[in-house]
Write a structure and sequence with these properties.
With 110 residues, this protein is mainly α. It is 82% helix and 0% strand. Helix 1 packs across helix 2, helix 1 runs antiparallel to helix 3 and helix 3 crosses helix 4. The longest helix is centred in the last third of the chain and has 29 residues.
Length: 110
């Protein structure tokens, strides 16, 4: 197994795990969701389901390109929540570095 395959499995696992976590701990995601998002409970579950589906799609060569583009669009769509998460961390003065590092990491993933 080469580096590309290993990184692909890791990325798939991360997206699948993150998607599952939307169902396991929705409060965490709802806290960082911008107020302008309609039906936050449903949007949270939808994003979780999309992450799971895209993560699974990464595992199959026939759907990897579509999955990659879907992940790019998803990362762009959730960017406002990550910015809000950073802002909340600054207000609480807790977790600032982690949430700050997440922003350029998201850009790198895109």
């Amino acid at each position: 197994m080469d580096f590309k395959q290993i990184s692909l499995f890791i990325m798939a696992g991360l997206y699948i795990s993150a998607g599952v976590y939307h169902f396991v701990n929705p409060k965490m995601y709802l806290k960082i969701m911008p107020l302008w998002v309609p039906y936050p409970d449903k949007v949270n579950l939808l994003v979780g389901a999309i992450e799971i589906v895209l993560g699974v799609m990464l595992l199959f060569p026939a759907s990897q390109i579509v999955a990659a583009w879907g992940i790019i669009l998803l990362l762009i769509a959730v960017c406002p929540a990550n910015v809000k998460h950073f802002q909340k961390a600054r207000q609480r003065e807790k977790g600032v570095w982690i949430t700050l590092l997440r922003l350029p990491l998201q850009a790198l993933l895109i």
